[in-house]
UniProtKB/TrEMBL annotation:
Residues 131-320 form the Tyr recombinase domain. Site-specific tyrosine recombinase, which acts by catalyzing the cutting and rejoining of the recombining DNA molecules. Belongs to the 'phage' integrase family. This is Tyrosine-type recombinase/integrase. The keyword DNA-binding applies. The lineage of its organism: Bacteria, Bacillati, Bacillota, Clostridia, Eubacteriales. Keywords: DNA integration, DNA recombination, DNA-binding. GO terms for molecular function: DNA binding.
Amino acid sequence: MAVTESLIKTGGSIIKFNKHFIEHFLEIKRRNSEYTSISYERDIKDFFNVEVITEITLDDIINVNIFHVEAYMLDLHNQGKSSATINRKISALSSLYKWLLKYQDNRTGVSIIKYNPFGSLKDEKPKVNNKETEFLTLEESKRLIESIDDRTILGMRNKAILSLAITTALRKSEIINIKFKDIKKIHGYDVIEVIRKGNKKDIVKIQANVLNLITTYINNTNRSFENNENDYLFIGHSRNGKNKKKLDPSTLNYMIKKCCERAGINKKIKVHSTRHTAITLAITSGASIEKVRDFAAHKNIATTNRYVHSIDKLKDNAGDLIDLFD
């Protein structure tokens, strides 16, 4: 059967897709997040042990039961995978089965599947250690930026990325997907147009010094806003096959790790850590919770409140009133 066409037989009925049914599922996910779609595809292929998604048939889907799922989770555990990784993989597979469960034929009452073997694993799923994300103090942030050697193209790029991340609280996908045309001036302010969670457009203000770093990086890569408007801003500068291509999340996290090591910062800092840093620094500098919510693009102010509560818990700690050393 052609890759671009998929037929599913269910109790005598035939459902025809213009592409493989899992490709269709991934396309739906891609509308909200390209990275979710990529992650789901990788996890689905891993479970079914295939090279391409179109090798998976409906019979493969139907034949999976709880014993297969438990064996898979045990295998992941034995491979040393983290609890978060295992839960993410199970969540991806469960999402596929939930989507297939939605199909009901009004004429025949036929369903594609009747059971989600990944959907009732509360006791089996490993507990995730929800330790707080590490973040940088203002002094550490300054030291990190100052330690980057910006005499090289790589240094210029890394300094621009980290300065942007720490002053805007942008997420990983938001940084990676910036194109030249997204940087513009609105009402006299320099901004970047970004796509937030849920595929929502937003604008983020850029500090003048950060824009200068970005402009310096652009000029030294022989690109311009006029000639490269549809190109990605931050690209690879190495010989690993990704030169001049859009950065991927692992490259971004690896870069931050190496920059922190060179700056003598002994913390596990990733892109989410720079976002956490930006939000925390905004709060400690006196920004209102409403301003911080907009700055962080939190959908719910309760999310912002968690940052405030975490800081207040340290700043106004009840234990400070206990004086054992008069």
